[in-house]
Design goal:
3-stranded antiparallel sheet; 359 residues; FAD/NAD(P)-binding domain; 2 domains; binds flavin-adenine dinucleotide; 7-stranded antiparallel sheet; 23% strand
């Protein structure tokens, strides 16, 4: 997007990979969730006063219009996410056409940047000189497709503050007490999860390493440490539904049987007729509605969709995206301390912030 906006100027695009847009290519399971019917600063972690005007200046409708004008129309999923029916290549081809004529330096890894009368951009293939420099090199997640911390290194070298970076939109590893969940690897169920004052609904996927799935990924964005609370039976009144039941617990509850078996073992209750549960046991079973535990950590940058934290937005002018510390130095996209929820919000941010660039 950055290169497409300034293709009429004398610009060079430096990219470490052998091709552009590798993250777009693998995103959304290869179909790229590019934006959402509902986009608000509330879907982002970061300074809302900084985020809001940038989203407003180039919102989801502007992005859809931009793509439509170039013959590319994403489809809407039931949950409001826009995606590409055939593949993410649909949008990649748009940008390939858009930047035709731009000097493209692929397979050039930026190592260091300094500034004298101009910026000197040191790469593994030589040094570039530029009057203005736009950093759009993303965050640390998915190093196997070229992610690096170069944006933070450059920002810090020019005196910018970096808000602590951590993997986000990522699965959780578990503490010993929840290891029983690992035995459910491959099973999924719809849950509500509370994290701080946020609540998400969606699919939780039990995995070999811990728990994952859309609802967990969203939770990870707002989790730092401490407890999260899972409702394994959202919109289900346990007392009401089990009141007159003579069924065994595992048959009475609308949950995967294997999950109930292991859950019951973890709270020391045998699978018996619901009518035989005493009040203490019923109380323990009620934990299904508010199962609190602290994840051990997360699956790390190798698996995280995004990096939380980054270049502090306090030192970036939201009207131009220029550094308030160094003239002619700009930051956009994921390298900034702005992180979106799952559902197309991170691409929307990357495109909106690139649109706001004023050189
Ligand atoms: C598996 C996965 C799935 C995702 N799915 C979605 C989704 O469906 N919807 C959504 O909104 N978001 C999704 N995201 C997040 C989204 O991809 C990013 O937030 C977004 O791509 C950030 O855009 P960016 O331009 O800031 O950085 P990036 O897209 O990461 O681009 C940065 C570029 O800089 C290059 N670079 C890095 N370091 C150097 C260096 N030292 N020298 C030269 N070049 C360098 C990289 O090779 C890369 O091409 C997903 C992320 C992952 C990892």
């Amino acid at each position: 997007m950055v290169a497409s906006r300034f293709k009429d100027k004398d610009i060079a695009l430096i990219e470490g990979n052998l091709a552009i847009a590798q993250k777009i290519k693998i995103s959304g399971g290869g179909k790229c969730n590019v934006t959402n019917t509902q986009v608000s600063y509330k879907n982002y972690l970061g300074n809302c006063d900084f985020i809001k005007p940038i989203l407003d200046a180039f919102d989801q409708n502007a992005l859809l219009e931009f793509l439509k004008l170039r013959g590319c129309e994403p489809h809407i999923r039931k949950d409001g996410q826009y995606f590409f029916k055939h593949s993410a290549n649909e949008i990649i081809e748009v940008f390939q056409r858009e930047i035709e004529g731009v000097k493209l330096f692929l397979n050039h890894r930026v190592i260091k940047v300094s500034k004298k009368d101009a910026f000197f951009i040191e790469t593994d293939k030589g040094v570039f000189k530029a009057k203005k420099l736009i950093i759009a090199s993303g965050g640390l997640s998915y190093p196997k497709i070229g992610a690096s911390g170069i944006s933070y290194e450059i920002a810090e070298s020019f005196g910018h503050c970096i808000k602590k970076t951590t993997p986000a939109l990522v699965g959780f590893t578990l503490q010993k007490e929840q290891f029983w969940m690992k035995e459910l690897s491959g099973i999924s169920t719809t849950v509500d999860i509370r994290v701080g004052d946020k609540k998400f609904n969606g699919e939780l996927l039990f995995a070999h390493k811990g728990i994952s799935g859309p609802v967990v990924l969203n939770t990870s964005l707002y989790w730092k440490k401490g407890d999260i609370e899972v409702d394994f039976l959202p919109n289900y009144n346990l007392k009401q539904n089990l009141k007159n039941s003579n069924k065994h617990i595992s048959s009475a509850l609308p949950l995967p049987k294997r999950f109930i078996k292991l859950f019951l073992e973890s709270i020391d209750i045998i699978d018996k007729s619901v009518s035989k549960l005493d009040s203490d046991e019923f109380q323990k079973l009620s934990k299904l509605k508010s199962y609190s535990f602290a994840p051990a950590g997360n699956f790390g940058y190798q698996k995280a969709e995004v990096t939380r934290g980054g270049v502090s937005t306090d030192e970036i002018d939201p009207l131009t995206m220029m550094s308030r510390i160094v003239d002619d130095l700009y930051f956009v996209g994921e390298c900034l301390d702005v992180t979106g929820e799952l559902g197309g919000y991170n691409f929307q941010w990357a495109f909106s912030s690139a649109w706001k660039l004023t050189l």
